Amino acid sequence: MSATSTAVVQRDRYLADLLNQATLAAEGSSLSLASLRATARALVQERTFPSNRDEEWRFTDLSSMLAVPFQAAPTMDGATLAQATDLLQTLTLGEASGRVVFVNGTYAQDLSTLPPAVQVLSQTGTLPDELGQIQGGNEVFTALNTAGFTDAAIVRIGKNSVLEQPLQLIYLTMGHQLLVQPRCLVIAESGSAATLVEEFHGVGASFTNSVSEIWVHDNAEITHLRLQQESTEAVHIGKTAISQARDSRYRNTTLNFGASISRHNIEVYQTGTQTETTLNGLTAIGDKQLADTHSLVALNHPHGVANQLQKNIMDDRSHGVFNGKVYVPQQAQLTNASQLNRNLLLSPKSRVDTKPELDIVADDVKCAHGATVSQLAPDELFYLQSRGINRDQAQRLLIYAFAMEMIEPLSVASLRERMTQYIQQWTV
Amino acid sequence: MINPDAKTILSVKDLHASVDGIEILKGLNLEVKAGEIHAIMGLNGSGKSTFSKVLAGHPDYEVTSGTIEFNGQDISELEPHERATAGVFLAFQYPLEIPGVSNREFLRVAYNAHRKARGEEEIDVFDFDDLIEEKTEIVKMNVSFLDRSVNEGFSGGEKKRNEILQMALLEPSLAILDETDSGLDIDALKTVAEGVNKLATPNSANLVITHYQRLLNYIVPDYVHVMCDGHIIKTGSRELALALEAKGYEWLLEEQAVAS
């Protein structure tokens, strides 16, 4: 057998092991999702675990995972609960109504206060029709999640209802070598508006594989802040899939700071005219971290507006990856789309791979894109130094400014403050 | 104001400097005493902007020989921030925009760097706010500019005012104004010049770098130097600037050619 096919067999086996663990976890949960699970399992069985030979995974090497047999998470014990309680104290959002906490993929009732808009699948038992229905569900990690998630947050914002207070969902991954699969479904009914804060934190070298599906119906508006601040030993693969109906507005800010390897797939599918989509992202990594953002904005109707700004800061030997797809087919006339990816490399060993991918067929559209890779501008540094600020402090000021462009607009003040402090400490 | 007994602030001797291996300054000599205003004029490419950057310590410029003494100390090996806290201030021809850094924060960090260098405690945010708002009056700047990003979206005039505001705050003993008049309408020019004049003290000096004598109607120099090909070819009084305005540079270059 050739070396290549040995590697394929190894990856196939590894994925089968992950699927077994996912199935074990699913069987241990009280959810009855038989047909959804069976379809997802079949999808995973058809696939192999990704390698750098797959175009979608060209720059993000998952081979280090192959040595780690991630296991379905056991029931939370007292020590984990205590640890989770401590961690949660640092994550308070003063403005939020309630707090929904999942520990290792399972709803933690003792740590949560459910706001009226949120239900938990393990408690209601009623499977919403929308679950698992947004496009892109056949991607291998999304299917793995569907095959094995043990609980799900169901957020439903009623017709014309406007939630003033943000909803906070916290997913904690606590422990070593665990396979943790958080799941969330958001349904913003027509004319509704809400702010959603999703946070991923944890300790230990585990694998979090999350899926969040968000339906933004006619004229609804969702502001979504996603923070990934997991343990720097962890692997994080996350999917955020959004379906946007006519006249809806979706604004996302994703902050990627944690994990040793992280990948965020954010996919927006337009299902009606005149939608507005804003995707903002900030990645700030160091050491040997790898952070990959793959975005897709699939327009399908006229008069859509989509703006994207992804900023990445790479220090030490870290590696950033950005791939931004924007599809503007013939029927999506009068689309106005922009995409900008700005990268700041702070060390000679840091690296970024950036690939804007615009596929524009419609001819009456405005589309702009750009990608920049730079180090700190020497002239800006000199300007600050010429005012008495030493080089080190000048660098910190410039990095801080680069990052804060994404933090300052955060609409939830207490999160903005927490993130500002994080950036201040990170730049020291 | 010329006072023969004043102490020497800047003494440049036989200064040679190059960028990317190309020599730009070729034996420049200049002495500036406290209380004096010196103008350096010259055509584009004569080396006058290079001279200002060399004085401030821009890393792209290498001093290959000669000395720069500032208040009796050789500063040619000092880092830019060390020259700044020692009292050298360069008002940039093209002040940089720094998105994301608030002007107020930038000014406070710079001011505290100077205090720290003098062994003084850092000033707190509230005391600083009082101080800086008082200084904005010198350049007639609206305080709202303090809360915008440094120079971002500022007009040419606003950027130059912001430079003079920094000078007012940092109180340098040598201020180098590099083409401060470029891009300014006459009102902005007057405001900026008034600011510079208000800040003049018997213990500090100004070095004004300009193509045109227009600015020198408002900041009146004690000495005018003409630079050509990396060194000073003629030094005179204010009348020299007026003659340059009336007759251009050619006669001077010809005179120079005849002399050599």
TrEMBL record, chain A:
InterPro entries: Fe-S_cluster_assembly_SufBD (IPR055346), SUF_FeS_clus_asmbl_SufBD_core (IPR000825), SUF_FeS_clus_asmbl_SufBD_sf (IPR037284), SUF_FeS_clus_asmbl_SufD (IPR011542), SufBD_N (IPR045595). The gene is sufD. It holds the Pfam family SufBD_N. Residues 18-169 form the SUF system FeS cluster assembly SufBD N-terminal domain. Residues 175-402 form the SUF system FeS cluster assembly SufBD core domain. This is Fe-S cluster assembly protein SufD. It comes from Leptothoe kymatousa TAU-MAC 1615. Belongs to the iron-sulfur cluster assembly SufBD family.
Automatic annotation (TrEMBL), chain B:
CDD domains: ABC_FeS_Assembly. Residues 10-254 form the ABC transporter domain. The gene is sufC. Transmembrane segments: none annotated. Keywords: ATP-binding, Nucleotide-binding. Belongs to the ABC transporter superfamily. Ycf16 family. This is Fe-S cluster assembly ATPase SufC. It comes from the Bacteria. It holds the Pfam family ABC_tran. It comes from Leptothoe kymatousa TAU-MAC 1615.
